[in-house]
Design a protein that fits this description.
The protein is an alpha/beta fold. The chain is 33% helix and 20% strand. The strands form eight sheets. It has a five-stranded parallel beta sheet with strand order 5-4-1-6-7, sandwiched between helices. Strands 11-10-9-8-12 form a five-stranded mixed beta sheet, with helices on both faces. The chain has a five-stranded parallel beta sheet with strand order 15-14-18-22-23, with helices on both faces. Strand 4, helix 2 and strand 5 form a beta-alpha-beta unit.
Length: 598
């Protein structure tokens, strides 16, 4: 083995950890054979590395107590993580050390004066970078050890937390799950990603072993911020950073996810975690928390989150940072059931409420049979609250592409336990109803571009909005077998909303989301009249909820601060929905009507 093999050029990736031999490497001489000459330059380099976020550890053949005493006297002992000091071979010890720390061998450099030790370490740890002490002066300015400024030694503190935890786990006799259940693991889901944008970028671009999608942002920081900020602004984007704390300390933000919704189905674009919490199963908990959305795992990862046999029951989610720092039981408002029925507004809002229940029922708009099924129209809900459709009415509905399940709802029969219900009826304002001539079935029918116009009366409109033969056939059926009724009248809307609210037990907290009446153009022209149909719907809702103590109204206008908060009249940027969520939780916490605290 020649020295040129260990030149800094051979460090093909950034180094995250240096493993130091001590005798004739970190210091001159041998501690057990005549004493040592302490190297102040190496001492200073270890401290400098820590300030760059690069860790140091020890793998030495020595007496552990003597080494600890020397380094504590020099006030350097606490700068080393997971030190391994005994008289056994170094190769297996380094392998065990890297497994504990959670680093790949290729991001680690081992320094030792004995070529035999270097060869053995390389054999047991394929890809490990190794070098003789002569390499040390070249490392100070090596680009692979540039690191990232960490003057407060945050990264070192986090690894020391992990080290203390590993020692405590050894006392627990190796039963990892039992140990985790006694560790009081708490997770805070930080939805305000914009406030920690650089950490999110770092997790996306720098994690490997627990980066499941491997989708990267630009290396240029300005470009990366711009791209991620644009993603976060979309109303179909759900994203958060994951911060973890337990009895041993605060691990900081260790994970990030970003999902994109298409037709109210979420798919993971980013799902990445630091190895700081490896074997705590935080990635498993997060994936389950998200409802196990479709995920295409790219490359090798150290964790199989798609294995459903792993049930993480030792993680407690908290909704405030103060709860994360408090080891006492949390006071998070919880419900046995949360039921949401409406449009994409509720789909954006419900992402936040998974923290508050183990049973979230979502009845949202969805593409079906070649068109969008607007389940936020009450014509689909009313049969579920009554006798349902007869067989002939089901056949009539099928001619327009509807199936019996479209007229069912969990609102028909509430599950047992404390429940919270979200309702949104925006489709009632803009989508007309049609009545089947023979059976009396009343249903809405809508295609993109038709707005609230009569599709039966306007042949030219039918030709404009039709996109395929299936839609042409259904429109022909609509013209032949149905009559146009039009939009629900104000009184008809109020009557339906009373019926719906009468059906829901008064023990259930109900939150009705009002329809927005002002769009982005109203910020430029405040005199522009409000959306008339949405205004009419809101007035009907307000009449229907009068005198009902279990019903709250949620007006999106209260959470829109500027025109940039709105994508269009019906869709807002992600922070608006989070503000709405915060307000709802604060209201529920104040009233605690129907809520349980854990």
């Amino acid at each position: 083995m020649t020295r040129t093999k260990f030149d800094q050029i051979q460090l093909v990736e950034n180094t995250r950890l240096i493993i130091w031999d001590l005798d004739e490497t970190f210091w001159d001489g041998t501690l057990t054979e005549g004493g040592i000459r302490y190297r102040e330059d190496h001492h200073a380099f270890v401290i400098e590395l820590a300030k760059r976020g690069i860790m140091s550890t020890i793998c030495s053949k020595n007496n552990a107590n003597e080494i600890e005493a020397v380094l504590k006297e020099r006030e350097l002992w606490d700068y080393f993580i997971f030190p391994s000091i005994d008289w056994t071979p170094k190769g297996p010890r380094i392998a065990a050390m890297l497994a504990q720390i959670g680093l790949r061998a290729s991001s680690v450099l081992f320094l030792d004066d004995n070529p035999m030790n270097l060869a053995q370490a390389s054999h047991h740890n394929p890809g490990l970078n190794v070098g003789l002490p002569s390499l040390i002066p070249k490392l100070v300015n090596a680009p692979q050890l540039r690191g990232k400024p960490d003057v407060h030694l945050t990264r070192l503190a986090q690894y020391k937390v992990k080290e203390r935890k590993a020692k405590a786990a050894e006392v627990a006799c190796g039963d990892t799950i039992a140990f985790l259940r006694t560790s009081n693991v708490r997770v805070f889901v930080e939805y305000n990603v914009e406030a920690h944008l650089d950490r999110a970028i770092e997790l996306i671009n720098r994690t490997n072993q627990l980066n499941f999608t491997k989708k990267r942002l630009p290396e240029d920081q300005v470009a990366a911020r711009k791209e991620l900020t644009a993603l976060l602004a979309q109303n179909t984007t759900d994203a958060a950073l994951i911060r973890v704390c337990d009895n041993f300390g605060d691990y900081g933000f260790v994970g990030f996810y970003l999902t994109e919704r298409l037709h109210n189905v979420r798919r993971l674009r980013h799902f990445c975690f630091s190895c700081r919490t490896l074997n705590m199963y935080i990635e498993h908990w997060t994936y389950a928390h998200l409802g196990r959305p479709p995920l295409e795992v790219v490359g090798d990862v150290l964790s199989d989150i798609q294995n459903e046999t792993t049930r993480v029951d030792w993680v407690t989610p908290v909704v405030a940072l103060t709860e994360l720092e408090d080891t006492s039981p949390t006071t998070t408002v919880r419900y046995d059931n949360i039921i949401a029925r409406g449009g994409c507004d509720l789909a954006s809002l419900m992402h936040y409420f998974v923290l508050h229940t183990n049973n979230l029922v979502e009845e949202f708009n969805q593409p079906k049979n070649g068109q969008m099924l607007r389940q936020d129209h009450t014509s689909f809900l009313m049969p579920a609250l009554g006798a349902g459709l007869c067989g002939e009415q089901c056949d009539a509905a099928a001619t327009l592409g509807y199936v019996p399940e479209d007229f069912h709802s969990q609102l028909g029969t509430f599950p047992k336990g404390r429940s919270l219900c979200f309702l949104s009826f925006w489709a009632d304002a803009d989508i007309p109803e049609y009545r089947h001539k023979r059976t009396g079935l009343t249903v809405p029918y809508w295609l993109i571009g038709a707005q609230n116009h009569d599709l039966i009366a306007q042949e030219e409109l039918r030709e404009t909005v039709t996109q395929n033969d299936v839609q042409r056939q259904r429109l022909a059926t609509l013209v032949r077998d149905f009559d146009h009724i039009g939009l629900l009248s104000s009184e008809r809307m109020a009557q339906r909303y009373r019926q719906i609210l009468d059906h829901i037990p008064t023990s259930v907290v109900v939150i009705v989301v009002l329809a927005p009446i002002r769009g982005p153009l109203h910020f430029e022209n405040p005199d522009k009249p409000p959306h008339p149909h949405h205004q009419r719907l809101n007035e009907a809702v307000s009449r229907a909820v009068q005198g009902r103590d279990n019903v709250m109204l949620l007006d999106p206008a209260d959470f829109i601060e500027r025109s940039e908060d709105m994508i269009d009249l019906n869709h807002f940027t992600r922070p608006v929905y989070h503000r709405m969520y915060v307000e709802v939780i604060e209201r529920l916490s104040r009233t605690d009507k129907g809520a349980a605290y854990v």
